[in-house]
């Protein structure tokens, strides 16, 4: 499955490059890209795209034989073959694209990761950790699948315990009941 997903990621990014459409890898693949290695099996491919250019991403999905399957409150799900794409918009915020409600710097301009030899843009470590905070609000970490526990550990180790705690405090402050 990883090889199929890697090939698809490369195809999507190549098509986006032809359109000068910046895309960022998110989720588990972003962790892998930032580490420069595949750490686990992935159920989907998370993509962040410029919100005002959604139609261009949809055109790429269709060009590759896929389709948009479902609208979500934060974006949409698409399918290409047997692969699921979880797509979330980022919006221009003065100097860079940012994911709504995520820490500043969520969508770095530079390619800060590598997938199978290809440099890729990916969501920041802070944005990755922030997503896990949302996940923990929905599903207690004790109930997380092992793969998510391990990915969260890798992300926290990479960012550093002190920065994770600062982010956690900011998240709690922002979303305090």
Query: What portion of residues belong to β-strands?
Result: 15-25%
Percent of residues in helices comes to 40-55%
Which class of secondary structure composition applies to the elements? alpha+beta
Specify the CATH class of the domain at 2-123. Alpha Beta
Number of strands: 8
> How does the overall form come out from the CA principal axes?
globular
Low-confidence stretches: none
Rg (CA only): 16 Å
Which topology of the domain at 2-123 does CATH recognise?
Answer: Beta Polymerase, domain 2
CATH architecture of the domain at 2-123: 2-Layer Sandwich
The major sheet is characterized as:
6 strands, mixed
Please report the number of helical segments: 6
Q: What is the string of SSEs from the N terminus onward?
A: HEHEHEEEEEEHHH
Distance between the termini: 40 Å
Task: Calculate the mean pLDDT score and round it.
Answer: 97
Protein name: Aminoglycoside nucleotidyltransferase ANT(2'')-Ia
InterPro entries: Aminoglyc_AdlTrfase
Pfam family, one: Aminoglyc_resit
Commentary on this structure:
This protein is α+β, with helices and mostly antiparallel strands and 177 residues long. The chain has a domain at 2-123: Beta Polymerase, domain 2 (2-Layer Sandwich). Helix content is 44%, strand content 23%. The protein contains six helices and eight strands. It has helices at residues 2-18, 27-35, 54-63, 125-138, 146-159, 161-174; strands at residues 24-26, 45-50, 67-72, 75-80, 83-93, 96-98, 113-115, 118-120. Helix 4 packs antiparallel against helix 5 and helix 4 (125-138) packs across helix 6 (161-174). The model has no long low-confidence stretch (mean pLDDT 97).
